[in-house]
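Researcher: Hi, I'm a grad student and pretty new to this. My advisor asked me to get structures for two proteins we've been looking at. I'm not sure of the right format, so I'll just paste the first sequence and hope you can take it from there.
Model: That works fine. Here's the first sequence with its structure tokens right after it:
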Amino acid sequence: MSGTQNYQGKTKPALKIEVRDAKGNLIAGIESLSVQENRQLTRVRHLEISRGGETIDVVPGVSEKSLNINGIVFFSEGGYLKDTFNRLDPIGSEASHADARVKGYYNLSDQLAGFDIYESSLSVDGNYYTTIHPNCWIQNRGRNITIQGDVKVMETLTVLVGGNSRDDYQTA
């Protein structure tokens, strides 16, 4: 069964959210994503004394998109993160990296390149519909660690999208 996925006894996910580098390598998975779009609006006002201050028109500015992410896991298999982040292994174990300078991803300044976020949904006809948010940069990052029986580490990010999102369609 070389080169094919065996889904026997399993179902394909109907929705998946992935983070990929510029070369298309999978570098992270996302549990929850919300999309916000914002733009400034400027009022153009009358200058005449009798109508001074009245709004004549509203001029839209450039729209900006940001993504709020709850639950993200960065993968380091195959060294995919080496072109995107300064550091490879989020745990920073001695076994994975002998050089102490490449242990762990800890700081926002570790991001060296933008990445793309793919929102893919599987339709009933077996086709994937994907929205791609290109050239994303992390604006802020936080971690919440909970210990109640199991240890839960929830990483949250706010990401600014550097380009216009686009849709893609892949047939089954």
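Researcher: Oh nice, that was easy. Here's the second one.
Model: And its structure:
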Amino acid sequence: MARISGAIAPFAAAVITLSTLAGCGRGGGNAAAGAGNGGSATLAAAPAGQLFPDNFKGVCSGASVSAATAYAPGSKAHKALFFETYKDDFSDHSSSLPADWTVQYSQTSDAFKAIDLVVCAKRTAAKEVKVCDKYKTDGKPSQNKVRWHTATYEVTAWEAKTGKKLAQTTLEATDTDCPMFENFSGDSDTVDDYASPSSAQVADFLRPHVTG
């Protein structure tokens, strides 16, 4: 369950309420559409063998994705995915890339087949800088705490189709602000969390391979 800091708890509650209402609205709309088509509503079938971001995680270790687009350095149509260390795996952070550098899921087309670049930020070191507290659960004080760390990342750009390494650098994530949102399993947990490379840092590293 997500535990949210007191400063933003009212906003979070509003988001949850709106999400629930929006879901109900979509359900009603689908039902009405079905009734207008003889009581049957169908969804377009996803393409067979459709790719998803998780299919590209292995590229961070030099694996290849044969169905991806071949990387052509002179092309102006490069598309990338961005993964960052999360626990013992990588998590998709592609939404932090400029919108025209990546793709969005599509139910009717194999959008991720256009990916030709994968950039991966692997956390290699971390330093605890503070303990964050005063988190609230449902607006009520809790004993939850976050051990916040600055971190060092090894950032690598790969060709998606071949798993060929294109470039590598080291980035320092130095943000010392406590996270406004955090996930806890109870009301008296202490968890570790880490600063991430900024979107600007990642974009600066990747830009020569996307726009060059």
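Researcher: Is there anything I should tell my advisor about the second?
Model: You could mention this: The first strand starts at residue 2 and ends at 5.
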